[in-house]
Specification:
- This protein has about 170 residues and is α+β, with helices and mostly antiparallel strands.
- Helix content is about 30%, strand content about 30%.
- It has five helices and seven strands.
Length: about 170
């Protein structure tokens, strides 16, 4: 597939936000049987991400069809970068597109020293993808016994239990 990235403007944020909520809710429904109106990401969480001055956001296209999106926190001083959000529409799963996209992201930011991301504990598909396909390592597990000091706990456990991944880049 021919992969390309299109930078988002602020005008695109509402659609990107809705895509994130729709795609991420699929795993919640599969795992917990949650009703469709139960959201993993709240609007305020996503909006806060959008207003970070170090954020770069892209729509991902595969053969000129919109296939998903990615939001990256790029620190040009420390070169410790973070994937904030990454999604592909379900019809683009299982074609190797995610690995192609990730490899392109690494090529776009060659000065990166370390990439970081988090994913919920129940997202086995994501865990497999990041560890086995992209070369990340799980470096921390946040839960009730080890809380993330940067995040305010929520009543739903799926918000409070997640892995932190890192990928050390060769320089």
């Amino acid at each position: 597939m021919n992969i390309s990235f299109q930078p988002l403007s602020e005008h695109d944020y509402p659609d990107f936000q809705n895509d994130v909520k729709d795609v991420f809710s699929i795993a919640l429904i599969e795992q917990f049987g949650l009703p469709q109106d139960k959201e993993f990401f709240m609007d305020d969480d996503i909006n806060e991400t959008f207003h970070n001055p170090k954020l770069v956001t892209y729509y991902i296209y595969a053969d000129e069809k919109k296939a998903g999106g990615v939001a990256l926190h790029i620190d040009n001083e420390s070169h410790n970068n973070r994937m904030e959000l990454f999604y592909l529409y379900p019809e683009f799963h299982n074609y190797g597109l995610g690995v192609q996209v990730w490899n392109m992201i690494e090529e776009m930011y060659p000065e990166t020293v370390v990439w970081e991301l988090i994913t919920p504990y129940f997202e086995k598909r994501n865990i497999h993808f990041y560890v086995n396909k992209c070369g990340f390592q799980i470096v921390e597990f946040f839960c009730k016994h080890h809380k993330d000091p940067t995040v305010h706990p929520r009543p739903e456990s799926f918000h409070n239990e997640y892995f932190r991944f890192e990928k050390q880049m060769k320089r």
